[in-house]
């Protein structure tokens, strides 16, 4: 790996760290891996608002599923 | 490119506004750190974007607004973990900026003195307030804010308003998490992972997670599957349940140890009782579970601990209430007008309990320390379970705590029972929640007695059942509780009783010790009754504070053997001090070289003295048993050990008082004088005195004039070369301290004996006078002789018995060690004299009979003298009457001898009234003769004139009456001789002598 590549990776890592901090401060309940995935999706052109809606929908479904299991 | 930049800039500014709004919302919710951290992170992100981002980066700067927008869409209200994260972000950022900025004290000092503003530079969040040349990042923040036209002004204002608080909060955070800061020296991600890993292990945190899942199929080889299976079985459904919070048993034990120390834990909490104090330990609703215990068994074990913790907590609040009451008592600012008084014994008891609770807390802390050491591999391996902890706790504390609470409740209950027979809710509360104020209604001496008695009983019981540990703990508590009372005893002996010499203003100088078992009554010091009744042992009182008649004395059992001695010593010391003598001035002369020792030291000496190691070495059971036995014996005999300790002090005081009485006040001399006069022990002199009195009587003159008596006494005293009596003695005047011994009620006894002896002498004189005339006819002389013989017998009895008793009394008195003992001996002596002189109430009838006999003698003498006069005048008539009387006399004698018939009659005698009046006029003589006035024999209104009845008839009737009376006396004396009293033998001799009557 060239030094430029290393710098790029380090910079991306730092950006992701700060984004994770903001994510934690906003209490988005996204872990680091999920956040990385979401960031890459947005970078790929996914509408962030739509993505957020999908995640919320998935969470709601998951909660319903868990409630059904408990009963 | 330009368009992109423009677009980026606009979007970035919009995002800025959104971030600022979120931060503002956080500040409104008083979450300044969160706001600061959010702004800081966003500024940091922008900085990275502006510096390093290239177009071919993995994360493009142009996408930052979209990314932040995405995050904001998913944002939720902050949780505690969010706030903690904000703290971490702030502290790590400060760390980095400190290192990066290189701000040193030298540079600070070189700059202009903007004190306080230097520190603002450390917090880039408030960059719009800091000077722009501090850091690059801060200038970028400022430009970012400045680029926002709307709302920025408001934000700046808010920032300036909250900057100070933010700064303070931030610096606080900096101080409170130094350890966390250490983790962020390296990679921040790694540090956070470490911290989060550690936090997950902390069972009291919400985010702590179990290592194993809860819902697993039951496996016989895996105990951790039992709890879930048990729950499933209990619910009757096989569906899976939500994951409960799980805790390891070792953590549960640590929580239990916290509980015992009165601290809330994740599994238990303290609920408020009716007083609003958090004393009731209970299990929390969502208690973390143990994987290998069913809920029921887990709850059962925890409840045991809760009971124990509740008891401990109740006692903590009891101790606290005692301390608060004490604080109120000694602080005049806090003391209300009707503040309840606090017994020092209760205070000492509370201190003892406090020490014990402290011991239990130390024990709990040590247990926890052992667990932590074992867990970290520092100490010995330990098996930690709830059950083993429960067993250890039972051995350590349970029995003792229950006993202590039981003692307090019994003490309260006793008071409630005394006050009323009905029970109210308030009473139940008193018993349920022990507080110091509830004990204030009990008098301090009663409280001390009850507490010590019950504690002492508890110690003995624990020794008896072999609970050496509990007995030892309770005995320590007992010693601590007894300390104030022991100190009071010492003070009482040293200072003595408080004597008020008629100066009412001094009354409040030094109130009597309310703890002590000595009760002070309101009797004047100079009163003869003061010594016996001025200070007495405390007795039970009823609800109206009136003494219960014949109630038991309220003295703690442990002090009972020495109570009387202590009371006497205090009285003796007080008397001596009043007179001006300090009994303990030359304390070394009495063998008392030591000061008054504390109770714990006396107890320690007693137990160490009585616990030698008799068992062979190495036999630990035998040693324990032997030690147990020895301690038990030492505790049982503690009262006598204390008596040994107190005796030298008491004896010294009593010896000084005795010396004062015998040497300085010449007690024996006064006593001899009194006895010489009142018991007529001075034969010749008293005969002369009596003759003077009788002459006065014969002359029908008033003899009971005090001046006449004084003159007569002075004359008789002159008969002897050495004056043996002072005229004052008739009025019973003796020097001051002797009044306690020789004054009332003893004076009454002396006078009553004197009266009886005087009556005897009077009868004797009259009869002797008849005999001297020598002209009586034989029958008449027989009767006179009978009188004489009987009187002689009584006289013998009284004289010899009195003499013997007096001598015995003198011997005993010289051996007595205390004034109390002397008073008791004197009272016993007088009681004995009273019994022998038939002056007690049970022998009142006999006394009356004897008086009747004496009166008969007087009456006979008078009749005879009248008859002699008439005979001289009318010899013929006398002859006839004599013959007739002879015939009747012979006839009656025969009949009497045949039938031994008792025909009694009594007479109202002129002489009796004379005698009675003669006895009853001078001072105390009057009181002594009260009975004889009332108890005269049945009256026949006869006079000495023979107009109605001839002399012969009168003599016959007298003879019959005398016969009846003597027989009655003999029977009564027989009965007295048959009793088991010490004086029965003397009455036996009298009874034997009276047998001659029938011969």
Automatic annotation (TrEMBL), chain A:
The main place the protein resides is cytoplasm
**GO BP:** gamma-tubulin complex localization; microtubule nucleation by interphase microtubule organizing center; mitotic spindle assembly
Going by the entry's taxonomy, the superkingdom of the source organism is recorded as: Eukaryota
* Key words, A-Z: Cytoplasm, Cytoskeleton
InterPro entries hit by this protein: MZT1
Query: Does the keyword Cytoplasm belong to this entry?
Result: yes
User: Looking at the UniProt record for this protein, which Gene Ontology cellular component terms does it annotate, in alphabetical order?
Assistant: gamma-tubulin ring complex; interphase microtubule organizing center; mitotic spindle pole body; spindle
Task: Respond yes or no to whether keyword Cytoplasm is given for this record.
Answer: yes
Tell me where it resides.
Cytoplasm, Cytoskeleton, Microtubule organizing center
Q: Which family does it belong to?
A: Belongs to the MOZART1 family.
Primary role? Required for gamma-tubulin complex recruitment to the microtubule organizing center (MTOC).
Q: Which PANTHER family match?
A: MITOTIC-SPINDLE ORGANIZING PROTEIN 1
Q: What is the protein's name according to its record? A: Mitotic-spindle organizing protein 1
Protein source organism:
Serendipita indica (strain DSM 11827)
UniProtKB/TrEMBL annotation, chain B:
Domain of life of the native organism: Eukaryota
Main localization, broad class: cytoplasm
Q: Does the keyword Cytoplasm apply?
A: yes
Name the segments for region: Disordered.
122-169, 871-939
- Which residue stretches does the UniProt record annotate as biased composition, category Basic and acidic residues? 871-883
Q: Which GO terms describe its cellular component?
A: gamma-tubulin complex; microtubule; spindle pole; spindle pole body
User: Which parts of the sequence belong to the Gamma tubulin complex component C-terminal domain?
Assistant: 731-897
Q: Where is the composition biased (Basic residues)?
A: 884-899
InterPro entries registered for this protein in UniProt: GCP (IPR007259), GCP_C (IPR040457), GCP_C_sf (IPR042241), GCP_N (IPR041470)
Q: Where is the composition biased (Polar residues)?
A: 137-155
Could you give a GO molecular-function term held by this entry?
gamma-tubulin binding
Q: Does the keyword Cytoplasm apply?
A: yes
For this UniProt record, the keywords arranged alphabetically read as follows: Cytoplasm, Cytoskeleton, Microtubule
Record-linked PANTHER family: GAMMA TUBULIN COMPLEX PROTEIN, GAMMA-TUBULIN COMPLEX COMPONENT 5
Q: Which family does it belong to?
A: Belongs to the TUBGCP family.
List the protein's name. Answer: Spindle pole body component
Q: Which organism is it from?
A: Serendipita indica (strain DSM 11827) (Root endophyte fungus)
């Amino acid at each position: 790996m060239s030094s430029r590549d290393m710098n790029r990776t380090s910079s991306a890592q730092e950006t992701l760290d700060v984004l994770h901090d903001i994510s934690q401060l906003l209490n988005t309940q996204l872990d680091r891996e999920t956040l990385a995935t979401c960031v890459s999706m947005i970078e790929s052109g996914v509408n962030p608002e739509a993505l957020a809606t999908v995640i919320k929908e998935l969470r709601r479904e998951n909660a319903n599923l868990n409630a059904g299991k408990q009963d | 490119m330009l368009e992109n930049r423009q677009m980026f800039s606009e979007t970035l500014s919009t995002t800025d506004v959104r971030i600022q709004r979120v931060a503002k919302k956080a500040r409104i919710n008083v979450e300044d750190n969160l706001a600061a951290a959010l702004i800081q992170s966003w500024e940091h992100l922008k900085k990275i974007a502006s510096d390093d981002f290239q177009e071919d980066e993995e994360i493009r700067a142009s996408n930052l607004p979209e990314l932040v927008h995405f995050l904001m869409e998913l944002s939720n209200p902050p949780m505690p973990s969010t706030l903690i994260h904000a703290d971490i972000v702030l502290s790590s950022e400060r760390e980095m900026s400190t290192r990066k900025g290189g701000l040193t004290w030298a540079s600070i000092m070189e700059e202009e003195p903007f004190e306080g503003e230097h520190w603002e530079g450390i917090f880039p969040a408030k960059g719009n307030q800091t000077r722009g040349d501090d850091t690059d990042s801060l200038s970028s923040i400022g430009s970012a804010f400045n680029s926002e036209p709307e709302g920025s002004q408001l934000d700046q204002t808010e920032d300036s308003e909250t900057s100070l608080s933010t700064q303070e909060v931030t610096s606080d955070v900096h101080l409170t998490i130094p350890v966390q800061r250490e983790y962020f020296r390296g990679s921040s991600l790694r540090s956070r992972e470490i911290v989060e890993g550690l936090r997950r292990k902390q069972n009291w945190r919400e985010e702590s997670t179990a290592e194993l899942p809860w819902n697993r199929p039951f496996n016989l080889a895996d105990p951790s599957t039992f709890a879930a299976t048990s729950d499933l079985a209990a619910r009757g459904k096989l569906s899976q349940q939500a994951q409960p919070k799980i805790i390891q048993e070792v953590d549960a034990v640590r929580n239990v140890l916290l509980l015992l120390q009165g601290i809330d834990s994740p599994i238990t909490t303290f609920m408020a009782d009716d007083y609003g104090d958090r004393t009731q330990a209970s299990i929390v609703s969502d208690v973390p579970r143990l994987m290998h215990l069913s809920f029921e068994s887990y709850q059962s074990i925890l409840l045991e601990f809760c009971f124990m913790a509740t008891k401990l907590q109740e006692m903590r609040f009891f101790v606290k209430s005692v301390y608060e009451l004490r604080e109120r008592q000694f602080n005049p600012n806090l003391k209300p007008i009707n503040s309840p008084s606090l017994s020092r014994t209760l205070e000492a008891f509370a201190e003892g309990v406090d020490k014990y609770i402290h011991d239990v807390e130390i024990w709990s802390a040590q247990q926890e320390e052992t667990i932590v050491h074992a867990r970290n591999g520092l100490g010995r391996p330990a098996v930690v379970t709830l059950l083993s902890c429960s067993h250890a706790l039972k051995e350590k504390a349970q029995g003792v705590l229950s006993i202590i609470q039981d003692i307090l409740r019994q003490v309260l209950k006793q008071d409630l029972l005394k006050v009323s027979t009905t029970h109210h809710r308030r009473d139940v509360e008193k018993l349920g929640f022990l507080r110091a104020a509830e004990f204030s209604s009990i008098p301090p001496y009663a409280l001390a007695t009850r507490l010590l008695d019950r504690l002492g009983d508890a110690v003995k019981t624990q020794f008896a059942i072999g609970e050496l540990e509990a007995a030892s703990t309770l005995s320590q508590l007992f010693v601590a509780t007894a300390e104030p009372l022991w100190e009071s005893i010492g003070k009482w002996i040293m200072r003595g009783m408080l004597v008020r010499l008629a100066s009412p203003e001094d009354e409040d100088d030094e109130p009597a010790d309310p703890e002590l078992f000595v009760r002070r009554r309101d009797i004047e010091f100079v009163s003869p009754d003061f010594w016996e009744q001025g200070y007495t042992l405390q007795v039970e009182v009823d609800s109206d504070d009136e003494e219960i008649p014949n109630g038991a004395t309220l003295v703690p059992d442990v002090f009972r053997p020495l109570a009387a001695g202590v009371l006497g010593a205090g009285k003796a010391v007080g008397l001596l001090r009043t007179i001006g003598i300090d009994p303990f001035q030359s304390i070394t002369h009495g063998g008392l070289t030591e000061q008054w020792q504390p109770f714990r030291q006396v107890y320690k000496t007693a137990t160490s003295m009585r616990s030698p190691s008799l068992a062979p070495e190495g036999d630990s059971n035998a040693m324990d048993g032997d030690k147990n036995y020895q301690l038990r014996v030492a505790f049982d005999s503690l009262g006598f050990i204390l008596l040994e300790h107190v005796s030298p002090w008491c004896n010294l005081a009593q010896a000084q008082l005795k010396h004062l009485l015998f040497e300085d006040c010449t007690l024996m001399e006064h006593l001899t004088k009194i006895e010489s006069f009142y018991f007529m022990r001075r034969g010749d002199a008293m005969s002369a005195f009596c003759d003077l009195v009788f002459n006065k009587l014969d002359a029908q003159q008033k003899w009971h004039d005090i001046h006449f008596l004084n003159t007569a006494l002075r004359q008789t005293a002159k008969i002897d070369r050495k004056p043996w009596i002072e005229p004052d003695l008739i009025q019973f005047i003796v020097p001051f301290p002797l009044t306690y011994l020789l004054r009332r009620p003893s004076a009454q006894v002396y006078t009553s004996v004197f009266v009886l002896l005087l009556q005897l002498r009077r009868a004797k004189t009259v009869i002797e006078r008849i005999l001297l005339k020598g002209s009586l006819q034989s029958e008449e002389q027989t009767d006179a002789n009978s009188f004489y013989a009987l009187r002689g017998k009584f006289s013998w009895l009284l004289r010899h018995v009195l003499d013997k008793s007096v001598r015995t009394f003198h011997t005993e008195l010289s051996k007595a060690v205390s004034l109390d003992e002397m008073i008791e001996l004197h009272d016993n002596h007088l009681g004995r004299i009273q019994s022998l002189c038939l002056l007690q109430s049970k022998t009142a009838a006999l006394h009356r009979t004897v008086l009747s006999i004496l009166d008969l003698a007087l009456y006979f003498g008078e009749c005879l003298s009248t008859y002699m006069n008439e005979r001289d005048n009318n010899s013929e008539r006398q002859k006839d009457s004599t013959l007739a009387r002879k015939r009747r006399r012979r006839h009656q004698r025969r009949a009497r001898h045949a039938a031994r018939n008792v025909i009694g009659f009594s007479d109202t005698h002129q002489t009796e009234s004379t005698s009675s009046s003669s006895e009853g006029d001078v001072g105390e003589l009057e009181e002594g003769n009260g009975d004889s006035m009332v108890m005269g024999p049945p009256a026949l209104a006869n006079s000495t004139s023979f107009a109605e009845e001839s002399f012969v008839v009168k003599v016959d009737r007298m003879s019959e009456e005398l016969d009846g009376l003597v027989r009655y006396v003999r029977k009564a004396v027989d009965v007295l001789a048959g009793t088991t009293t010490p004086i029965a033998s003397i009455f036996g001799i009298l009874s034997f002598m009276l047998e001659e009557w029938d011969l």
